[in-house]
Write a structure and sequence with these properties.
The complex is a heterodimer of chains A (258) and B (1110). By secondary structure, chain A is an alpha+beta fold. Chain A has helices at residues 16-35, 38-57, 63-88, 95-112, 130-155, and strands at residues 6-8, 121-123, 163-166, 178-184, 192-197, 202-209, 216-222, 229-235, 241-247. In chain A, 43% of the residues lie in helices and 20% in strands. In chain B, helix 36 links the parallel strand 1 and strand 2 (1008-1009). The relative contact order of chain B is 0.06. Classes of the chains: A alpha+beta (258), B mainly alpha (1110).
Chain lengths: 258, 1110
């Protein structure tokens, strides 16, 4: 070895209360999951996973590299196999079955694991220098900054264009003659103007309007039976169509607006 | 020479004291008094030049608009930085050389240096500014290069700046130190006068300010010649300049020069960052605040310089004085903070009310950095005394890069105020590191005395009182000064002799030399690389064209890869650091996937598996139907684990998937390392192998995506490791390996089959090589193989699993490609995608380099791998055999049909290549230079393979919409359409759409996307055939299609992925033109078809009426 000592931690805790504490942690994790306490359950999941994995790899004594590989890999394998088992249950994979299944697997690992666990072999050279700690923190900070920059950049990457849609595409046929069209604004909020084209002239549908930020503008449109109705969105004052949708009743037969 | 950045101004003076060994002492010789005197002198000089500089900028701010001041501020900052770079350390060189130079040739030497500095700086200015504007898109600097006259002005000004920098140091050595102050005084006054004159004459714009600034230098330089005219009488006859006089003198100077540059760079470049990232106008305000901070930053700097100057190389002296200079500097800086907090706007009002309003907050933040500079400057002073400038320069350079990266990120996030906070926070972090090092130095204070490098100057040259005559030109006595402490002794423990053992000692770790642990700094640089990648990706979202961003991203990749690779290759790197970096590097590269697309599944395969994950969440059961790729839902291991995390943690599917992928990558890295370590017994071989594996073309593309192979491969490697590292024989010993093999069997079909095949081959090889001697080994292997085989069969026979047909179709496709190539069908066009988009020349070069380098490295590595045959090591032999498949990877790219198979095999084949190459080179890389060269070459291979596997960088980065280009086809419009389908259409409606819209409709929209592979109906004519025919109705009816999603932008170009929808689609054969627009709008005219959604790009049609009416 090359100067990095592999030292042995002190005697492993053997007391029953330690085992009890770990089981309690598992139970708490399952409980918070079942209760839907999400941020807490995520933290507890990480903590209980670490506890179970640490306990499970304790006896391998092949160094930290092996411990990480087997610990993390074993966790993935265990979750996967638990999932396969849960799939065979009538309820399948849901929050309850996952919480209970993983808790049961963790409990089994703790109870059936090494009864006389060896001291954990860890890497521990000399105490890290403050500069090392700070550089490490800096590295974490930079990586986190990279992620934040990326997420923020993705979030501000561009709003969608203005959208025109039929509010209830599946339910239109049963309506007595009314349909709702929705204008959803992106970066451009208007003012817009809706017009109706039923093949015999274009008429305005209300006046110019501005779509509220983050909201939608809804318009009720009459859809006569047997007449194809095109709803066209313009920019106010500009006759060229921006978006358009068509509405018709089952027997309607007509072409799109020219 | 005055400068707005007074903190940087005395840096040149530091060099004076660094290299010189002062012998002149004031009467009384009291070092404290000298320290105070030198510091006061430096502060005084800075105050004079800064006050006049402040006046200059105040006049500029009041007479010209903020844009002009911003441009000029950036120009001056860039000029100072480039001038400092272009001075090439010649000022320091003159300080060292002049006293030893015969009087007759001194002026010639000075002229030679001035000419060299001027030329270098002028060239550098052109090489810096023009590419910055034209290639990197820093349009804020465009006014500097608008016309040839502007370019000439900038180059000339920069050259003069470098000349004054060098000359200011030279005149100090000549023993008339007051010349520096006088020249700067004259230059500053002339600048102001020139500025008033030109603005009074109606001059406007940033370059007017720059011209006035330069006028000061132009006028002051002849005066220096006049003031030193007495020396002309001593001058020899000969040429005015002589380049031979410069030979062999630069090394020492460059060491200090590098440190100085590292110190100057961030503050000098901050205005440039503001100009580029925010605006020239904001930089005008920012520059005002930065000018004021110069006063605050001067004091700690002067203190540290004075401390160093009076120490005369005595480390103890410095360490002893630190105890009061540091607190004193901190108290004074804190006092400045306290005063400036309420008075910031008052102080800034000297520039104008707008500055007071806009910059006060920035000033209050910036000034906090003074506290950190107290620590940083003292650290630098200590390192100079210790003659450890090289190490300090590396550290300072790394932190400078971090400062700029943080500043850029802060600017993007929060403008100038964000930049200020980010920069100050980073400087504060640095101060923590430097403080720790200082504390360590004080606690471990040496008992001895001198550790400084032997001064090479004669006595009495540096701290001469102004006005004293030049020292006699005598050379120093070699024996009169202590020898420098060798670098290896200074850093301690780092330089070992290195192992040259030809073969590994099986299972016996070889003693490797131990050096200093640089894990944390290396990780810091690696993270900075990630930040560069993030900045490139973020900027690329809106930029077009953007070759500079491609370069920035590639540089980020290189910054992530190179430092760990170099440290791993380096002989003196500690084992723990090496192994940790071998894990950190691939883990960081996994993060690159998240950095590119941090909020959603973006790739084809990802969305297929995201759809499986969605369906599991909706149905609560596995092995359901995924129409996008039916076979994928029968291997749901990755989705099962992700669903577990989603359900228990409450995190979103994407976040949970990202977490699982990182864990999978950690497993891959650690299991592979542990495996190679157990085979070779060498952590170095294992780590080098891990770096080589990182060069796998698919590591940051296919093998980083949310796709089943991404989990299966790590688990397969883990299974092999578990078999090899089992503690005991028998079923209990292989329980973990068997469970892992089962997990692999339900994660990915091909990986599980290959795993079982490998385990079977391993069993056979054990029998063959060791016979019955190793019966337990064979039995255990057979047991794991049997369990794995049973699991593979079990997964294959799940009702409905179409894996057999799926693999058969792939085999047929590959066979068709090979047959076509053999039959004379032309190979796939090199370096272009199906839409005709070509890789950039540097990308092509790197790809060729990568393939060539690996091909050249393998044969000698195979020769060296013969040792594993001698040792009868079946697992090693298996890896060697695997490496023989390397030609499949580049050869696969010859045809489109085989490209994907070649790519996907890379993840497996590179396991063998990594082992073979890692083993072959691990003990031959040696020391620093060779390690750096090898790491640099490996970086080229890495980036080249990234392009080979993932395509041109431009296509990897997010950006404006492209047709059928997977991630590049997902934009706000396509996402909006997918979300509308989720909100408005009944779940699991049968939808037909193009490649990406179909993926989004399923994965995000929750719809059942019809595909040929799952429905046996090719409905592509619905979108791609410009004519509406009864066949359209027939295929829609056969496939049960209710909605058709059409992205009208498909008509813009040929599809980048080769198909608009799926392989075998309508019109694919021989397609040379984009799909006609008529095909994309034809449904609008069809009776019974309702157009129910339109966002300008994507349109959704309801075709139920059409089916009912016909």
């Amino acid at each position: 070895m090359s100067g990095d000592r592999q030292v042995v931690e002190g005697a492993p805790p053997r007391a029953a209360w330690v085992l009890g504490g770990r089981l309690l942690l598992l139970a708490l994790t399952a409980a918070t999951c079942l209760a839907g306490l999400w941020p807490v359950s995520a933290v507890l999941l990480a903590a209980s996973s670490a506890v179970v994995v640490r306990s499970a790899v304790r006896n391998r004594r092949r160094g930290p590299l092996d411990a990480v590989a087997v610990g993390v890999g074993g966790w993935l394998v265990a979750v996967l196999l638990v999932g396969l088992v849960l799939n065979a249950l009538p309820g399948g994979l849901n929050r309850t079955s996952w919480a209970l299944g993983l808790a049961a697997a963790g409990t089994a690992a703790l109870l059936l694991g090494p009864r006389d666990p060896s001291p954990l072999v860890t890497w521990r050279g000399r105490r890290p220098r403050p500069s090392t700690v700070l550089c490490s923190l800096g590295a974490v900070l930079l990586a986190a900054t990279a992620l934040v920059v990326s997420v923020v950049g993705a979030g501000s990457g561009g709003a969608s264009s203005v959208q025109l849609s039929v509010a209830d595409p599946g339910g239109l046929e049963g309506d007595p003659g009314w349909a709702t069209v929705l204008v959803t604004a992106g970066a451009d909020r208007g003012p817009f103007q809706l017009t109706i084209d039923r093949g015999h002239g274009v008429q305005d549908q209300g006046g110019p309007f501005v779509v509220p930020a983050g909201g939608q503008y809804a318009a009720q449109v009459v859809v006569p039976e047997g007449v194809r109705t095109a709803v066209v969105l313009h920019r106010a004052g500009d006759p060229s169509p921006l978006r358009w949708v068509t509405l018709d009743r089952p027997s309607a037969r007509s072409g799109p607006p020219s | 020479m005055s400068t707005p950045l007074t903190r940087n101004r005395p840096v040149d003076d530091v060099e004076v004291r660094v290299t010189a060994r002062p012998s002149w002492r004031p009467p009384g010789g009291d070092r404290v008094r000298r320290l105070v005197g030198v510091s006061a002198s430096l502060v005084g000089t800075n105050v004079v030049t800064s006050v006049l500089g402040l006046g200059f900028w105040a006049i500029a701010a009041r007479t010209l608009d903020a844009d002009a001041v911003g441009v000029a501020g950036a120009a001056v900052s860039m000029m100072m930085m480039v001038g400092a770079l272009g001075s090439l350390g010649l000022g320091t060189l003159l300080i060292a050389r002049l006293p030893a130079e015969p009087q007759g040739s001194r002026r010639r030497l000075v002229r030679s240096c001035l000419l060299l500095a001027a030329g270098a700086s002028a060239v550098l200015s052109l090489l810096t500014v023009w590419p910055a504007v034209e290639l990197l898109g820093m349009t804020g600097l465009r006014p500097l290069v608008d016309t040839p006259a502007d370019v000439a002005l900038l180059a000339g000004s920069t050259a003069l700046t470098a000349v004054t920098m060098v000359l200011d140091q030279a005149v100090l050595v000549l023993g008339v130190g007051a010349l520096q102050l006088r020249r700067n005084l004259v230059a500053s006054v002339v600048k102001i006068v020139a500025l008033v004159a030109v603005t009074g004459a109606g001059g406007r714009g940033g370059l007017v300010i720059l011209a006035a600034w330069t006028a000061g230098n132009v006028v002051s330089l002849p005066l220096v010649s006049h003031w030193t005219r007495g020396g002309r009488a001593l001058q020899d006859r000969g040429p005015l300049v002589d380049r031979r006089s410069l030979h062999g003198l630069g090394r020492d100077a460059l060491s200090h020069h590098a440190l100085n540059l590292g110190l100057q760079a961030p503050v000098q470049l901050l205005p440039v960052v503001v100009t580029v990232m925010v605006s020239a106008r904001d930089n005008g305000y920012f520059n005002g605040a930065l000018l004021v901070t110069g006063f605050v930053f001067t004091l700690p700097f002067a203190l540290s310089v004075g401390l160093f100057a009076v120490a005369e190389g005595d480390e103890r002296e410095v360490l002893g004085r630190l105890r009061w200079t540091v607190p004193f500097g901190l108290v004074v800086s804190l006092a400045a903070d306290v005063v400036l907090y309420p008075c910031a706007d008052v102080v800034l009002r000297v520039f104008g009310d707008a500055y007071a309003h806009e910059s006060a907050g920035v000033l209050r933040v910036l000034v906090l950095a003074g506290l950190a500079f107290v620590i940083k400057d003292h650290f630098v002073a200590l390192r100079r005394v210790q003659n450890r400038t090289a190490g300090a320069a590396v550290l300072v350079a790394a932190f400078s890069a971090a400062e700029l990266a943080a500043a850029a990120a802060g600017a993007r996030w929060g403008g100038t105020l964000g930049l200020s906070w980010a920069w100050v926070a980073t400087v504060g972090l640095e101060a923590g590191v430097f403080l720790a090092l200082l504390v360590r130095g004080v606690r471990g204070r040496p008992a001895g005395t001198l550790t400084m490098a032997p001064p090479t100057l004669p006595q009495g040259i540096a701290l001469e009182p102004p006005g004293l005559p030049a020292a006699p030109a005598t050379r120093p006595s070699p024996g009169g000064t202590p020898e420098p402490e060798p670098w290896s002794q200074v850093v301690g423990r780092s330089e070992g002799t290195g192992s040259r053992v030809a073969a590994a000692r099986h299972a016996a770790p070889r003693a490797e030399p131990v050096g200093r642990d640089r894990l944390a700094p290396t990780l810091l640089i690696l993270s900075a690389g990630l930040l560069l990648m993030a900045l490139a990706a973020t900027a690329a979202r809106t930029a077009s064209p953007r070759p500079s961003l491609d370069v920035l991203y590639a540089v980020g990749l290189a910054v992530v890869f190179l430092p760990p690779a170099a440290r791993i290759a380096y002989r003196g790197t500690p084992r723990r650091e090496r192994l940790a970096l071998a894990v950190a590097l691939p883990a960081a590269l996994q993060l690159s996937r998240t950095i590119l697309h941090p909020t959603f599944f973006a790739y084809h395969d990802e969305m297929i598996h995201a759809n499986t994950l969605r369906v599991i969440g909706a149905t609560h059961h596995l092995f359901t139907q995924n129409p996008l790729l039916p076979v994928s839902s029968y291997y749901p291991g990755l989705e099962v684990v992700t669903d577990g995390v989603v359900q228990v943690s409450g995190a979103s599917p994407f976040v949970s998937a990202s977490l699982v992928l990182v864990l999978a990558r950690v497993v891959l890295a650690t299991a592979f390392l542990a495996l190679v370590l157990s085979i070779t017994g060498s952590a170095r071989a294992a780590s080098v192998a891990a770096v080589v594996y990182t060069c796998n073309p698919q590591l940051i593309f296919f093998n980083a995506q949310f796709s089943y192979q991404t989990l299966a491969l790590p688990l397969a490697v883990l299974a092999v490791h578990l078999v090899r590292s089992r503690g005991r024989t028998g079923p209990a010993g292989v329980l973990g390996a068997a469970a892992t093999a089962v997990a692999v069997a339900f994660t990915h079909h091909l990986t599980s089959m290959l795993l079982v095949g490998a385990l079977g081959a391993w069993t056979g090889a054990e029998l063959l090589l060791h016979g019955r001697r190793n019966r337990g080994e064979v039995r255990d292997l057979a047991l794991v193989t049997g369990v794995g085989l049973a699991a593979v069969v079990g997964a294959t026979t799940v009702p409905g699993n179409p894996v057999a047909g799926y693999l058969q179709a792939i085999a047929q496709t590959v066979q068709g490609g090979v047959d076509g190539l053999a039959g004379g069908r032309p190979a796939k066009a090199a370096f272009t995608d199906p839409a005709g988009a070509a890789s950039l020349p540097w990308e092509q070069l790197l790809m060729v380099f990568a393939v060539t380098a690996v091909a050249l490295a393998l044969p000698p590595a195979w020769l060296r791998a013969r040792t594993w045959w001698t040792r009868r090591e079946p697992l090693a032999l298996g890896l060697v055999l695997l490496s023989l498949l390397y030609p499949l990877i580049p050869a696969g790219h010859l045809t489109r049909d085989t490209a994907e198979v070649g790519d996907r095999s890379a993840g497996f084949v590179f396991l063998g290549i990594a082992f073979v190459v890692g083993w072959a080179v691990h003990d031959r890389i040696g020391g620093g230079v060779r390690a750096a060269l090898v790491a640099t070459a490996a970086t080229g291979v890495f980036v080249g393979n990234v392009v080979l596997g993932a395509g041109p960088v431009g296509s990897q980065l997010p950006g404006p919409y492209q047709v059928s280009a997977d991630a590049r086809s997902i934009d706000a419009d396509s996402l909006a359409a997918a979300r509308w389908t989720a909100a408005s259409l009944p779940p699991e409606s049968r939808v037909y759409a193009d490649r990406v819209s179909g993926l989004l409709a399923a994965a995000i929209g929750g719809q059942h996307t019809v595909r040929h592979v799952s429905s046996d109906v090719d409905a592509s004519r619905l979108i791609l055939d410009p004519r509406f025919t009864p066949e359209d109705v027939a295929v829609a009816r056969a496939a049960g299609i209710r909605y058709v999603v059409v992205d009208q932008r498909d008509a813009q170009s040929l599809p980048h992925e080769g198909v608009y929808i799926e392989s075998g689609e309508f019109g694919q054969a021989g397609r040379t033109e984009p799909v006609p627009r008529a095909a994309l709008v034809k449904l609008a005219a069809v009776p019974g078809v309702r157009r129910i959604y339109d966002n300008g790009s994507v349109v959704v049609y309801d075709v139920e009426g059409m089916l009912r009416e016909r």
